[in-house]
Amino acid sequence: MIYGVDIGGTKIELAIFDAQYRQQTAWREATPKQDYQEFLQRIVNMVDEADQKTGMPGSIGIGLPCVFDDRGYALAASIPCINGRPVLSDISEALSRPVSFQNDVKAFVFSEANGGAVEGHRHVLGVVLGTGVGGGLCVGGKIHQSRQNVACEYGHVPLSAKLQNRYNLPLWPCGCGLEGCFNEYISGPGLQRMCGHFGGHYKNAQDLMVGVRAGDTKANEIFNAYIDCLGAFVSQLILMYDPDMIVLGGGLSNIDEIYQRLPDAAAEYLFSGVIPPSVVPPMYGDSSGVRGVAMLGHQAVLEANADE
Fold first, then answer.
1. Residue 308 above 70 pLDDT?
2. Bridge-based pairing state of the strands 133-139 and 142-143
3. How far is Cα 21 from Cα 4, in angstroms, rounded to an integer?
């Protein structure tokens, strides 16, 4: 069987797939963020449970929300306990089998470019609006790999002075060590910070959108500012990558109004003649990342066997 393990700043999802990448079962557990040994053990326990369910050890692809330095040590804004740790070798050793690793959001766009919402388009960009902001670029169905694997870490592009001044936004510190990153304004937690900044008392994004749809003045003020910031952010991605299509992921990708308003919001920051690409929801929803890492893990095993 084929396992995908999608590790995020909030949850770890393990999904089991058959050879045609049809999901058989999946479950989620909270991500231990502060205790490294607990983090490793949580992954081991979930894989052990999968082996018990299938009766055999499956291939494993793991998605991680981090980048690695030249020593192979992790830098993750959303999971502090793995910072400065050789997490790839530690996980592989703990699981006692070959493991394929990929950035979790790059695996998401790989999934959507291969049998998903943007299949058939040559240049596709994934933008994940979840606990953090990240994404990936697929060209011809393959993940674009860069020199240091930091390409598409665009959640850490700094907020513009124009937006900061327009909304009197503070330069909030980011888990990456910088401050004023777009990550802190347009992610799920970022939207919650925006609510607090504007004096809104909404429990979460769903609560905010109830207010927006009911015509609540404060809710609309906050969401208008959020869409403006998101539009400015996406306009930069369009100028950098000029994608054929953009697919959104993460919890905020479930908000229909984002798809309705984002192209026009991005167009406000583009010079004449530049047309924003279509922005679409993921075919596989918030489980697309786990599907992507499962596919990549299985392909790595097939390639290794072919070389023997």
1. no
2. antiparallel
3. 10
